[in-house]
């Protein structure tokens, strides 16, 4: 929480909670939305947070088709822990009459100027009254980002839903597209199985080599420890003792008897 002087806003009421208003479309409600609402809820000591959610008609006219319909978007926002009240079918552009009707003390929104028609910033009149509180966007997540991911991985999600039993007709794809995805999925499973088999074979070869290597090292150790003894025993077979040497010199070489 920060002071009203630091926020450059008129002092908050002292006998009740401050009524702060946020508005938006909130399609595919995500943690970026939730963090913006959390900022508004915690910006002052005592806050009653009112959130306006624009309806389908105005949203589709001004911005285009949404993934979630208005009822789904209303309920998504209503179940956010920071929200005290939801204004359904909220206006695209707020007016002083709207703020007065809902007894709103402050409007919270990111500080990017929103141009509309001949207005450079639809929130300018609120800023002029020092009743505007700027919130910060959460980087790395937005409704547009989420839709981009879905479009990018379109075939992947189609395969997943087909595997779960969703009819092709409900997914709005042709029979040929369904067969194409089926074949691709089979090929992917085969590749995965082949890769696993190769990996297991490599592990088996590696394990066998380690065992063979251990046996070779054991044999080498045994040879090293026994080699001296074996060599000495072998040389004794051809070595004369001292007495045999003297007899050989005195009598000459022994003759063979027949």
From TrEMBL:
UniProt GO cellular component terms: NLS-dependent protein nuclear import complex; nuclear envelope
Class of enzymatic activity (EC top level): transferase
What does the record give as EC number? 2.7.7.15
The UniProt record lists the keyword Nucleotidyltransferase: yes
Residue ranges constituting the Cytidyltransferase-like domain according to the UniProt record:
21-149
Membrane-crossing ranges are none
Pathway assigned in UniProt: Lipid metabolism; Phospholipid metabolism; phosphatidylcholine biosynthesis; phosphatidylcholine from phosphocholine: step 1/2
Keywords assigned by UniProt? Lipid biosynthesis, Lipid metabolism, Nucleotidyltransferase, Phospholipid biosynthesis, Phospholipid metabolism, Transferase
List the InterPro entries hit by this protein, alphabetically. Answer: CCT, Cyt_trans-like, Pcy1-like, Rossmann-like_a/b/a_fold
What CDD domains does the database record attribute to this sequence? Answer: CCT (cd02174)
Domain of life of the native organism: Eukaryota
The family note in this entry says: Belongs to the cytidylyltransferase family.
Which PANTHER family does the UniProt record give? CHOLINE-PHOSPHATE CYTIDYLYLTRANSFERASE, CYTIDYLYLTRANSFERASE
Recorded protein name is: choline-phosphate cytidylyltransferase
Source species: Rozella allomycis (strain CSF55)
């Amino acid at each position: 929480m920060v002071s009203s002087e630091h926020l450059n806003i008129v002092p908050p009421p002292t006998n009740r909670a401050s009524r702060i208003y946020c508005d938006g479309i909130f399609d595919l409600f995500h943690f970026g939305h939730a963090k913006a609402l959390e900022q508004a809820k915690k910006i002052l000591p005592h806050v009653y947070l009112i959130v306006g959610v624009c309806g389908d008609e105005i949203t589709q006219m001004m911005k285009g088709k949404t993934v979630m319909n208005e009822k789904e978007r209303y309920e998504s926002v209503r179940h956010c822990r920071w929200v005290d009240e939801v204004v359904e079918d909220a206006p695209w552009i707020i007016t002083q009459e709207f703020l007065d009707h809902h007894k709103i003390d402050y409007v919270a929104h990111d500080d990017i100027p929103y141009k509309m028609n001949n207005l450079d910033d639809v929130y300018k009149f609120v800023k002029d009254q020092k009743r505007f509180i700027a919130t910060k966007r959460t980087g790395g997540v937005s409704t547009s980002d989420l839709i981009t991911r879905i479009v990018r991985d379109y075939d992947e999600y189609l395969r997943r839903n087909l595997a779960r039993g969703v009819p092709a007709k409900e997914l709005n794809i042709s029979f040929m597209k369904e067969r194409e995805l089926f074949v691709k999925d089979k090929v992917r499973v085969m590749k995965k199985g082949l890769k696993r088999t190769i990996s297991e074979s490599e592990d088996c070869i590696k394990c066998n080599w380690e065992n063979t290597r251990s046996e070779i090292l054991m044999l080498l150790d045994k040879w090293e420890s026994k080699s001296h003894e074996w060599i000495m025993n072998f040389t004794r077979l051809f070595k004369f003792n001292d007495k045999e040497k003297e007899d050989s010199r005195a009598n000459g070489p022994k003759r063979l008897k027949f």
